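Holo prediction — glutathione.
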Amino acid sequence: MTLKLYSQPGSHPCATVEAALALKEIDYDRVDLLPLSQLLIGRLRYGGTTVPGMRLDGERIVGSRPIMRRLDALVAEPALLPATDDPSYETVLEAERWGDETFQGVPRRIIDVAFLRDPAAMESYAGDAKLPLPRALLRPGLPLTARMMASRNKARDESARADLDALPGQLDRIDAWIADGVLGGDQPNAADLQIGSSVRLLMSIVDVRPLVEARPSARLTRYFPPMVGEVGPGALPAEWLHASASA
Ligand SMILES: N[C@@H](CCC(=O)N[C@@H](CS)C(=O)NCC(=O)O)C(=O)O
């Protein structure tokens, strides 16, 4: 069996899938794509336009949740979902869906706006990625890449402010799931990995970190390797953060 994960540096749903692969000790090759190149390459290689995408021999799978389901079918233990007759089964699925459909967009839009203001910070997220072009060649294109990503994700100042205003309420929801034992167990489930990767990306933005770090939500980052990228202090205007800090 050969498993190829199509990924992108800094992508949080890709980090979700990589954490699941590590947990299940599944060998895989990772193909690192340049930002937005998945729109073309994804269609050809795995039949999608977003990362993560996966090829398992001839089979093509797109999206973090379908990939997680496929990994559970491939290697049953440790399971990413409770047994179907377990009382927490539906709640874990609901938390995972919310993590994908709602919460995943929050760090994406906030970091896109931070990159517009500090495009050089994007490079720090490349970590050990084997990019198809030398970094020195990519560097001059970072401001344009940041603009294209923000446009694709509909990220602008107003969206970042709205996301920051809504963040305390969303972290309350995650903290409540942790208090109820749905999230935050010793062994992560699919929702821990889906939501935890978003919390981890948020915490890589130094200006946003204080809104998260003292909360139980921050503990979901322990299922992942240390984050490589960072957006340094001052990328986001201080007045955007005041309301969220006092919430
Ligand atoms: N929610 C889906 C989509 C993931 C997604 O949107 N990934 C971003 C990178 S973090 C992407 O590929 N964006 C490119 C685009 O939207 O065209 C998942 O969890 O797989």
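READOUT: The CA atoms of residues 13 and 64 lie 6 Å apart.
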